[in-house]
């Protein structure tokens, strides 16, 4: 995740783009300015990354098929990239916002304009910085894609929308956390959990000091709200619950789910869920909103708990007493696994298109390629702490991969990522997967690390067909869900266990596969899939490099200097 150098000065662009076939779809424009502000979410003044002066950043709300233009200004003191977790960036990995596909936005007031279409997507997502562990300091916000009016939703329209951003939090700066990892140290226990950028309500005078600002969600009795929850934290799975209220799960990361009630839900790092919550209590007092750590020693981690307040307009008093209980045994991964596999796709509901979500019969498609990605606890490689997939700790290319392809930069990366763990010492390398366009692949994530991991794939959603404990074997395929497995972009992998996913490779580009746990990601637990259509000679399946692309590495001399460029980014969209 260390950023590459970029030999450039400020460039101002006026973008007139998507002038042909996207003209029928509306445009929406956002401006996001990244800067530091001082905040004290846990009572300790610290530097956080704000977006437009806000922490967390503003909610970006768009509609299916909208053309989205986001001008990002970097006023930080280090390079920046913004990624859009779960947004598939159809045919345009140029906009994905990770170092394998983009040169970073230089520090000191530089701008870069992201330009993409939310093609055939609905749901709850988020945006966040992808480099230098900056997400540990903020810079994140909710990204919502609402359905078109002509497409029915599988529930009655809610009375309102609520966004809740949760995550573990350190009072040490992201630069200090980075240095700790560089020095071979573990990050240790977080200092707390934030809810919408605020610390816990003082439910316990011993655990929570006085003077901490907490989040309050105001609601009206009898109404039903759509509650979107994102875990944008560093590495901690959080159990989310609202005292005395059921959480009716309806959507996760772009796909409607079979609707069922939960009293609490484990939300892993990088995951997003949407619930319907009805305000059906008597409002004798306010109610706790809780996000507490999972799979850790609660006696030691008791302070790693976020607490907000749900306030009815007719509430008769403040919340008091103990917090609502989490699942009985915080170490019970079997309970957690069963809950995860209970989340299934609503196969009869329409998603972004009129046809039912279940009309893609993934369980009947023959697998063309198989990958087993094994993770282990971080190891020392050449004297440095590193994290690996299949014994390879990823080193970001000097030049982004597709730029290297386009301009014939040799030796930038290798297409030799192993399909399974190799019997050899671990190494640092720029090794990526040479995936097959229109292939249908099976990926098994084997977690031999000691912590729960979140695995994320850019550019796609995958079907989570199986989970289990122990070493995966081919016999485990008999337990796969081949009918209504949930499709999503981020899944959990329990320590000592495995998760199996299936994905159809119909999106040309270069796409990041990574651990969402920030420490593991920073230490190199990632790779990329390079998916190229060898028969495409006219940009029908992949958009051309944008005119405002930044250049770095071997192509740094191509970067334009100190001028205003007015360009037309004309796109021929051939969508099948």
UniProtKB/TrEMBL annotation:
Residues 35-149, 161-315, 400-535 form the Plastocyanin-like domain. It comes from the Eukaryota. One of its GO terms (molecular function) is oxidoreductase activity. Gene3D superfamilies: Cupredoxins - blue copper proteins. Its cofactor is Cu cation. It is a lipid-anchor; GPI-anchor. One of its GO terms (cellular component) is plasma membrane. Keywords: Cell membrane, Copper, Glycoprotein, GPI-anchor, Lipoprotein, Membrane, Metal-binding, Signal. Residues 1-23 form the signal peptide. InterPro entries: Cu-oxidase-like_N, Cu-oxidase_2nd, Cu-oxidase_C, Cu-oxidase_fam, Cupredoxin. It is found in: Cell membrane. The keyword Protease does not apply. Belongs to the multicopper oxidase family. This is Multicopper oxidase. It comes from Solanum tuberosum (Potato).
